Amino acid sequence: AQSVAQPEDQVNVAEGNPLTVKCTYSVSGNPYLFWYVQYPNRGLQFLLKYITGDNLVKGSYGFEAEFNKSQTSFHLKKPSALVSDSALYFCAVTSGGSYIPTFGRGTSLIVHP
Amino acid sequence: DAGVIQSPRHEVTEMGQEVTLRCKPISGHNSLFWYRQTMMRGLELLIYFNNNVPIDDSGMPEDRFSAKMPNASFSTLKIQPSEPRDSAVYFCASSTPGSSYEQYFGPGTRLTVT
User: Shortest Cα distance from A74 to chain B (angstroms)?
Assistant: First the structure.
């Protein structure tokens, strides 16, 4: 079985400060990890993924995530937050043997001006 | 590319009525997923198709829900009869597993059953 935990329901950060949205996972085999963002009244939008290779993955809108195998984590980061980054963020995991991802509950990111 | 297309965007219906949600995946994507999102339960996978064949429907709540994919460019999710607890946002997503894996979501259909 595979699972994802996003331990924070909400993250608050001031504009211009760095942000981190946490994600830990459990999966059999090699993990395929994803981050998605959902703006109000919109569908989820793919941000970035880790399949293999460099542990630091860069994605859209200046976001990046670091794969840490020993800690089974895939935290989403951005060096300088923007108010427009305020949204709901989902982490997801699957493995090479399954095409069905498991999504976390989501973390609401609020960036204050 | 127009992305994943869903219709209608909003649906308000009375309890007991039949509801049909429609989805057109991205051309060339061979996998299609139907999800339901609510505040209480988050994002739930309802059914997964690969090459138009239902592979996993374990998330379909009950017999009132059915889904079809008659061809590579069209899928429907039907609820008959609808109940107030079916009120949610329903998303369709498509992907190309085996190459990129990430999913591309449609804008969703907001269903309200009164």
Answer: 16
Q: Are A33 and A93 in contact (CB under 8 A)?
A: yes
Contact B48 A100 (CB under 8 A): yes
For B26-65, how does the pLDDT look when each residue is reduced to its tens digit (9 = 90+)?
999 999 999 999 999 999 999 999 999 999 999 998 899 9
Peptide bond before B81: cis, by omega within 30 degrees of 0?
yes
Q: For residue A72, count other CB atoms closer than 10 A to its CB.
A: 16
- A5 in Cβ contact with A74 (< 8 Å): no
For A43, the closest of B45, B97, B106 (CB atoms) is B106
Q: What is the CA radius of gyration of chain A?
A: 13
Distance from CA of B82 to the nearest CA of A (A): 22
Q: Provide the terminal-to-terminal Cα distance of chain A, rounded to the nearest Å.
A: 41
A44 contacts on B by Cβ (under 8 Å):
43, 91, 93, 103, 105
φ, ψ for residue A89, nearest 5 deg = -115, 130
**Mean pLDDT of the region A46-59:** 93
d(CA B24, CA A98): 23
Instruction: Give the pLDDT band (50/70/90) at residue A24.
Output: very high
Q: How many residue pairs from chains A and B have C-beta atoms closer than 8 A?
A: 48
